[in-house]
Every structure is written in C-alpha cells, then in structure tokens.
C-alpha cells in the first residue's frame, strides 16, 4: 500500500491597490481613515472589527474586516489578523472596532484581546501601534490612553 505524502500548496501574492499611500501619524489620522469604511448607519447597528495595515513609513497598505458581530460583541481570531498582516508585509498594524452603544470605554475583553494580539504580533516583529474604539461621534485610543 502506497501512501501519498503530498500536501496542498499555498501560493502567496500581494497586489498593492493604492499608488499614493495615506500616512498615519496619529490616532486621529487612523480614525479619519477608518470612519468612512463603515457604511452609513452601520457603526451604530452592530460591531465590526477591522485592522489597518501600515508599512515602515506609517503609510496605509490597506485595511480589512476581520469579523462582523452582533450588538454587543464580535468574535476575533488573532490568527486571521496575523495572517493578513503577514500577507500585506505590514510592519505595524492598528486594531479598530466600533461600539454600537456609543460607549467609548474599553471592556475587559477589549483589553484582553489587545494584549493577546500585541503579544502574538511581537513574535512576528509586527508592532500593534494602537487599538481604536470608534463611534460616529468620536474614538478612544488605547495608545493615547497608555493602554498599550
């Protein structure tokens, strides 16, 4: 009996979408970049977790939706975040999610997830610059508040 030891092949490709890259120098820059990525009326409807990918010059390589949840939470898989960061050749990332309630205070789960992503990303030499909680009226920055 012959056993086939072949495994599936993974092919990676990266096709930059932007010719002119937007620079993020502050949490406000990141908020202004991310806010329009929410369709009108959805930021107050349910929770979305997104990641902004940056190169070494703090220029935006892109962003992705990691998960879409319900009114009070969304499931986030750290592996999916790191996979996307590696595929985009990101040096730094900014985590972001909205609170449909409008409350800008981070939950215990927000703090735990931020630490988990930060620790995992550090192993890949990727820096988590910030984690933003967004509402249509403003934002909370983990970095600005000393939570990173």
From TrEMBL:
One of its GO terms (biological process) is proteolysis. It comes from the Bacteria. Coiled coil: none annotated. Pfam families: RadC. Keywords: Hydrolase, Metal-binding, Metalloprotease, Protease, Zinc. One of its GO terms (molecular function) is metal ion binding. Gene3D superfamilies: Cytidine Deaminase, domain 2. Residues 23-148 form the MPN domain. The keyword Transmembrane helix does not apply. This is DNA repair protein.
